[in-house]
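Annex B. Sample input.
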Amino acid sequence: MEKIEPGMFARSKAGHDKGCLYLIGKTEGEYVYLVDGTRKTLAKPKKKKQKHIQVICRNRENWDPEKIHDDDIKRAIRRYQAGPAEPEI
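Annex B, continued. Sample output.
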């Protein structure tokens, strides 16, 4: 298993939020703090055990919790869910 780092995307595997996409805000032992910018903000992240998430090993560039805002998180999640951009012809 690869190291879980802040800024990585994660999908919830268990709980009432099963299937939701988050960014990992920080890690603490066997727990991670997840944020989505809307319901789970940087001020009030969701605490979840690592075994209850599926880590998507794609690190968000320039992850600095001091400089990032909830709007940046929402934008990153929207871009990830949209998938790769279609090539222009």
